[in-house]
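Consider the tokenized backbone below.
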């Protein structure tokens, strides 16, 4: 199956945006040209090897200096040459840069060396910019033609002389694509120079292919010769890392200097079997986000800072700030170009997810945009099953190959494996090999589309007898190919032991369990022992119990099978906040029958972090909080009610004589201080009256049981019943009139009478708290 590579979204589905085309993408790294791999085992693939994580690359940059290029095109070529030379983060890679035109008279030369073979360590990087600046358009006296055969010959010589043949060899040819050797005497007489040039070009392209030199032409100028560029791209070495059309060298047209970034990004990604992702741009201070796929084993975050004063820090998907050199968690880091305008952070075993690149700059250095991109290479890993594993002749079997990361984590996002090609073949004794078509389209034997599982079916030939083997190979540009094999055996008419294993998809936490049921039947008169194991997942992440199941003759029934997830410390930071899905295979073999595989059942377990206290008990916390709120509200209501029941406001205070006659006018109490209304008895022996006075010798408050309580300064408290009275001074007592807070005519307060209720009415009005009140005791009549 072939799919177009779809650019991965940053964050969770955010659309890519690049309002300014910058040269950051041009700094994509020439680093991981890896040959096709083959792995027939089922154990976990190792993490990126430290010895191959930063492989060296040999490449040459040939720059057209002929007169057919306009000055702006020459400027664009020089910018591209400098960026190519500085784009590799490996300190052991090498680059050679030279200009070329044509030698058209004595003393002229077609090739103009500007940068000799330079190791891209810290010292070498500092010299590249200066020597690239020596490139220039040829003057008439220097030979202004375009000699492609000589340029390619020089590039092949630079890439093959004194170099390690196992290192990738890449020649970038920057030109307008128009060969012109009509004035070059070395190509013979003028009438045949053009034909001789074509013949020599063909010869040099054949030599480049033989020397495994890839040629990637970049066409500059208003109308580059596309046919000539395509010819040179197709003439060089075509098999870089995988045999896919997307990995074959191609020619690109560069319309202007600003197109260099995107163009070189595509070239580097295709030429070196890597994935290139263009990220956002923004002026500092800014935080730029970009994703790294869970398939990536090595990734490089490339930042085009524009200004060398910009300082960059990197945060992994867990929010941790990572070092630019050294290790953090399970990842290893190495920074290149930190002091220049472009830097790249190389990450071995990067944490998958959204990375954040923080750009900061001092005042005066914030005018240029900062761009981020990522280049990554990964390992495809598949898990293959054949159901049933021991079929009979003529029986149909279903073959399934599931895509995983190198650690056995299941891949669910189709964009992670876009462009994937799956090949499968069934071989065995007694029949010719048969090709299988495995698809992930949700049709036929494939249950779900775009879920990372590719399925197909085939009928076992009637002549099959003995061993069976099914192979499956996953191939995609940027991802190391993986081949998996499943061995089987033609079953007899009746198997000694038959089994069926049901394992539901699980959702648990580290240390949790997923249970299934194994149905077994021993059809023989011999004791058999079944051995259970988990495969296709990194060792230690999942385990199955029981490890062995003994079956006595004639034994049948079900057995509980438990798959246990490793504790959290085994996962480390790979677990993340959202968890991960483990994909493995539980296998049962009959050890008594030559380790015949009886069943291989896929297992999918979603593992999420153990919930914290809040996640576990939020409901209890919320309930407790609600209870506390209700209790507090009840206490507050009780306090308010208590305060209200004791509030003296509305009490009518009345003075009566020893004979029971009302003295003066009634006095209505206010709210008082702390539920006590303080007052004084003025002129008690002449014309007694009540007057409100702070810190007065008397104070009253309501009694919740009815009436009031009188407090005397230094004299304690005395109940004042509704119909009673308390002597204040000799001949003057205090009693209560009608309560102004009670509704008239209702309740006991409305009919309350003081001890002098039958006394004649006196007084004709008043002003409440200040002394008198009108109509306050009309009902006493």
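A designed sequence for it:
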């Amino acid at each position: 199956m072939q799919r177009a590579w779809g650019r991965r979204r940053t964050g969770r589905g955010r659309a890519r945006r690049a309002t300014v085309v910058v040269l950051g993408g041009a700094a994509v790294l020439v680093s991981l040209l890896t040959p096709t791999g083959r792995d027939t085992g089922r154990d976990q693939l190792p993490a990126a090897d430290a010895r191959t994580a930063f492989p060296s690359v040999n490449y040459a940059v040939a720059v057209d200096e002929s007169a057919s290029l306009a000055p702006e095109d020459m400027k664009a070529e020089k910018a591209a040459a400098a960026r190519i030379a500085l784009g590799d983060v490996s300190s052991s890679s090498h680059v050679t840069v030279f200009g070329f035109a044509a030698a058209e008279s004595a003393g002229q030369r077609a090739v103009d060396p500007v940068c000799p073979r330079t190791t891209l360590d810290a010292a070498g990087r500092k010299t590249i910019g200066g020597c690239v600046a020596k490139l220039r358009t040829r003057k008439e006296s220097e030979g202004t033609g375009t000699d492609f055969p000589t340029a390619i010959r020089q590039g092949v010589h630079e890439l093959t002389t004194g170099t390690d043949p196992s290192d990738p060899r890449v020649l970038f040819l920057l030109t307008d694509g128009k060969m012109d050797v009509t004035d070059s005497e070395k190509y013979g007489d003028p009438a045949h120079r053009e034909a001789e040039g074509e013949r020599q070009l063909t010869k040099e392209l054949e030599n480049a292919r033989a020397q495994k030199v890839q040629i990637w032409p970049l066409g500059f100028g208003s109308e580059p010769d596309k046919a000539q560029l395509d010819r040179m791209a197709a003439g060089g070495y075509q098999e870089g890392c995988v045999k896919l059309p997307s990995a074959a060298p191609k020619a690109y047209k560069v319309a202007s200097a600003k197109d260099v970034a995107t163009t070189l990004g595509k070239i580097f990604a295709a030429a070196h079997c890597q994935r290139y992702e263009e990220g956002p741009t923004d002026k500092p201070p800014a935080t730029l986000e970009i994703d790294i796929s869970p398939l990536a084993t090595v990734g490089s975050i490339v930042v085009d800072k524009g200004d060398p004063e910009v300082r960059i820090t990197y945060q992994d998907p867990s929010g941790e700030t990572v070092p630019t050199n050294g290790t953090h968690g399970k990842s290893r880091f190495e920074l290149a170009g930190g002091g220049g305008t472009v830097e790249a952070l190389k990450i071995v075993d990067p944490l998958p997810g959204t990375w954040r690149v923080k750009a900061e700059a001092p005042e005066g250095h914030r005018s240029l945009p900062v761009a981020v991109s990522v280049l990554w290479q990964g390992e495809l890993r598949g898990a293959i099953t054949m159901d049933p594993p021991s079929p009979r002749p003529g029986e149909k079997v279903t073959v399934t190959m599931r895509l995983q990361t190198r650690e056995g984590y299941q891949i669910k996002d189709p964009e992670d494996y876009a462009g994937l090609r799956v090949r499968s073949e069934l071989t065995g004794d007694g029949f010719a090999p048969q090709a299988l078509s495995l698809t992930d389209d949700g049709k036929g034997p494939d249950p779900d589309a775009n879920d990372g599982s590719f399925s197909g079916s085939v009928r076992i030939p009637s002549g099959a007898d003995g061993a069976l083997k099914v192979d499956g190979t996953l191939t995609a540009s940027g991802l190391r190919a993986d081949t998996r094999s499943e061995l089987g055996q033609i079953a007899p008419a009746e198997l000694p032991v038959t089994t069926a294993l049901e394992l539901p998809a699980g959702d648990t936490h580290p240390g949790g369990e997923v249970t299934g049921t194994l149905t077994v039947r021993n059809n023989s008169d011999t004791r058999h022992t079944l051995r259970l194991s988990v495969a296709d997942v990194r060792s230690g992440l999942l385990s199955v119990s029981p490890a062995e199941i003994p079956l006595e003759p004639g034994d049948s029934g079900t057995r509980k099978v438990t798959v246990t997830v490793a504790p959290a410390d085994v996962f480390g930071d790979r677990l993340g906040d959202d968890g991960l899905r483990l994909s493995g295979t539980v296998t049962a073999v009959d050890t008594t029958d030559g380790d015949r595989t009886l069943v291989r059942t896929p297992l999918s377990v979603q593992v999420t972090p153990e919930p914290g206290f809040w996640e576990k008990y939020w409901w209890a916390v919320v309930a407790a909080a609600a209870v506390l709120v209700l209790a507090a509200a009840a206490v507050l209501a009780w306090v308010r009610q208590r305060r209200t029941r004791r509030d003296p406001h509305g009490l009518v205070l009345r003075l009566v004589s020893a004979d029971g006659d009302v003295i003066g006018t009634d006095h209505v109490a206010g709210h008082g201080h702390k539920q006590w209304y303080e007052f004084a008895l003025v002129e008690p022996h002449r014309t007694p009256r009540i007057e409100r006075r702070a810190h007065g010798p008397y104070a009253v408050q309501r009694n919740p049981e009815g009436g009031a309580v009188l407090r005397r300064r230094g004299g304690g408290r005395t109940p004042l019943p509704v119909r009673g009275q308390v002597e204040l001074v000799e001949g003057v007592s205090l009693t209560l009139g009608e309560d102004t807070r009670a509704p008239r005519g209702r309740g006991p307060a409305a009919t309350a009478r003081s001890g002098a209720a039958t006394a004649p009415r006196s007084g004709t009005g008043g002003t409440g708290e200040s002394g008198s009140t009108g109509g306050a005791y009309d009902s006493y009549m």
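Residues 1-53, 744-781 have pLDDT under 50 and may be disordered.
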